[in-house]
């Protein structure tokens, strides 16, 4: 039994590595929108549910349990390798058939099912397979709880190993090979033990390979337990979705944050399942313990809700004090444990207690485990999809947590009603006393639910910097959407800020307006694009700058969060030329990468202003493969521009962004945006063909009545002439090659950028990074064409900025 526990640790470790790798690979194919993530999550857990439910019906009880378990592990490893090498083919099939609307949703579901159902079916079957190695006695069932806990302990190791080492240092291939090696090792040991040990069933005939008749009749009142454990799974995954959203605001939505949250949640489940297994072995009526556990969850959910909205955001912590990100991660881990652990432990204890509640001597242990596990997983599917796709966006995290508290209350009352009040030897007085006690508990739970506080707007606005920004301006809008919580604030001087991912993403501050309009106008002035794609709506300023170009015929804004174009951009209408109401503009709710990949036609220009690269998933818009896809959709002479931030970043991340872009666009160049003479952020500009900027043509445009609105837009950000605009030139691929020689190229298989950027989100080194880069800049003798006077003026302006 202890050896099997070790095997389950290895199995769980491999499973979480696969989960992280498969989700990353499939997001690159079917997108990272809320719908896509819902399809992936539902398919993943659906496969687990089917595997646990069907294995006892498909595999004979005469088969050696350890041999079946070993074969399952080996099958998972083989499929893991097939998926790694088959994903490009799968992606090609998807892009050939994908589209928008219901049809596109069906294609996403089919692709997810083809990839995830086979391996997750086998994963879900492992616990029922090994369950036949134990007896359905209290001691045997407790071992099932320990196996479940060991599997979760391995999952903790897998989540941390993948998030902090394998994917940060290597890539998805190495991570997959590590998981496959674990599967092979577990399978090898399983086959070896199976050969050395005969089938056990607690009967003398078992040694001869025969088994007694299996009792398949359910225990009395078992339906209440199955329903309760399903509700427990629903509340567990629903709470995880809500709490992950809130904690990512508080800590910063990096890959490290998500790995930590997952690890802490799993730690709680593992501890709880071990404690629950021990309790289930010793108590006479485990159903009562299960019911009490569900009632205690009412208090645990209320406790975490209080911590995440009323306590932790206001702890006197300034994350920028420490320049070492690992210290900050340690602090975040402790805070996450403080908030999440109580509820996770109670959910973990629920599973073994449910097993003990429905177990009977002579019962097929595989059917026992499979039924309880399937019910729990089915509830988890409902909870995760319901919270992520419906509850948060519909009623908000506050009311979602209230629903979870009431659901846990219902689960507890259900179990206790059939676990206590149905006792034949219970007197009438005792029944009335118990009933009144349950009513009192229900009243207390309702009070706890009503006490859940709404999400603070300041937390949505400033995230991890909430304690240092309290009272700074007025939150004039806050909303929780499908993929993000967003806010708009107004400072006392009238400046508007757009907040997403717990920080300011755009504003009407001069330095931000300059960057946002530079990004839009550089896209349209150098060439004359008729069709433009804008990735990321934000405050709409970049899209607005594109929209006022008189030669533009069609503009598509790809935005992943519906609240942003529908609400946020309305507040910035004065600054974005009311872009969402422009008849030439079309809003496409989708993540930008998926939109470009599934686009059947081509465009003349694309400008991208995504979230910070340290936000999990944003690095997919900075990868070499994405840039190649953009090039494939670009008409001849087309232009690509990209925002790169220097603040809240580090040199390695900036080099990765620039180096990857210039590798895809060897003729590309960099334009700088400074604040008080210090580097602030950048615009990367690329064309497939060698770029020639005709200063005379652009100068004539800006002086013509047709371009009066464009010229006024540029004057508002300090560019009074074509000379001012192009004096921001900061280098090209040839100039910066020595500086970029050690740049980590961001590729789909490693998404290296999000791991590099995640270690620099608390740093403010924009000035030194920009100054270091400018050392390598040379005068662009062949870039500009036109009159000698204009060329000389631009080159002089560039030289002036270099001296600054």
List the helices and strands and how they pair.
Layout: H1 2-30, H2 34-58, H3 65-97, H4 101-131, H5 138-169, H6 172-196, H7 222-251, H8 255-282, H9 286-311, H10 325-358, H11 365-419, H12 428-450, H13 457-462, H14 466-469, E1 474-480, E2 485-490, E3 496-500, E4 503-507, H15 510-525, E5 531-535, H16 541-547, E6 554-559, H17 563-571, H18 573-576, E7 585-589, H19 592-598, E8 603-608, H20 624-632, E9 634-645, H21 651-664, E10 669-675, E11 678-686, E12 693-694, H22 695-703, H23 708-716, H24 722-726, E13 729-732, H25 733-736, H26 752-757, H27 766-774, E14 784-785, H28 788-803
Parallel strand pairs: 5-6, 5-8, 6-7, 8-9, 12-14
Antiparallel strand pairs: 1-2, 2-3, 3-4, 9-11, 10-11, 10-13
Helix pairs in contact: 1-2, 1-3, 1-4, 1-5, 1-6, 2-4, 2-11, 3-4, 3-6, 4-11, 5-8, 5-10, 7-8, 7-9, 7-10, 7-11, 8-10, 9-10, 9-11, 9-12, 10-11, 11-12, 15-16, 15-23
Per DSSP, the total helix count is 28
Mean pLDDT: 90
Largest sheet: 8 strands, mixed
Number of domains: 4
Beta-strand percentage?
5-15%
Poorly predicted parts: 201-213
Number of strands: 14
**Name of the level-1 CATH class of the largest domain:** Alpha Beta
**Per the principal axes of the C-alpha atoms, what is the gross shape?**
elongated
What is the CATH superfamily of the largest domain? Answer: Vaccinia Virus protein VP39
- CATH topology descriptor of the largest domain: Rossmann fold
Measured as a percent range, the helix fraction is: 55-70%
Main structural class: alpha/beta
Q: Architecture of the largest domain, according to CATH?
A: 3-Layer(aba) Sandwich
Cα-based radius of gyration, to the nearest Å: 29 Å
Q: Could you give the distance between the termini?
A: 70 Å
Major sheet: order of its strands? 7-6-5-8-9-11-10-13
